[in-house]
């Protein structure tokens, strides 16, 4: 959590030093879900997830390019109703 109250999400691809920025979110659950979407697209079934029960529902990016993963993760985080969790 940043000092101004927003949550950020990043993911590191295997065997790479760079962190891929996924976005800034208003809740920790949104940031965690964005991370799950990115992890599934990058690591597949070996990804360690925050919400493993939602595995079948996240959208998939059109490619594994960082900008596609970021856009899909950010969009997915804004679409889920986290009140049920």
Automatic annotation (TrEMBL):
Gene Ontology annotations for the cellular component aspect, listed alphabetically: nucleus
Subcellular location per the Swiss-Prot or TrEMBL entry: Nucleus
Organism of derivation: Quercus suber (Cork oak)
Every AP2/ERF domain range: 1-52
The keyword Amino-acid biosynthesis appears for this protein: no
Main location (coarse class): nucleus
Family: Belongs to the AP2/ERF transcription factor family. ERF subfamily.
Nucleus among keywords: yes
Protein name as catalogued: Ethylene-responsive transcription factor erf034
InterPro entries linked: AP2/ERF_dom, AP2/ERF_dom_sf, AP2/ERF_TF_ERF_subfamily, DNA-bd_dom_sf
Keywords: Activator, DNA-binding, Nucleus, Transcription, Transcription regulation
GO molecular function: DNA binding; DNA-binding transcription factor activity
SMART domains: AP2 (SM00380)
């Amino acid at each position: 959590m940043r000092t101004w109250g927003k949550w950020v999400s990043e993911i590191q691809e295997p065997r790479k030093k760079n962190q891929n920025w996924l976005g800034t979110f208003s809740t920790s659950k949104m940031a965690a879900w964005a991370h799950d979407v990115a992890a599934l697209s990058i690591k597949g079934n070996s990804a360690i997830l925050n919400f493993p029960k939602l595995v079948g529902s996240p959208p998939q990016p059109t490619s594994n390019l960082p900008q596609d993963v970021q856009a899909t993760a950010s969009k997915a985080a804004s679409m889920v109703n986290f009140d049920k969790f």
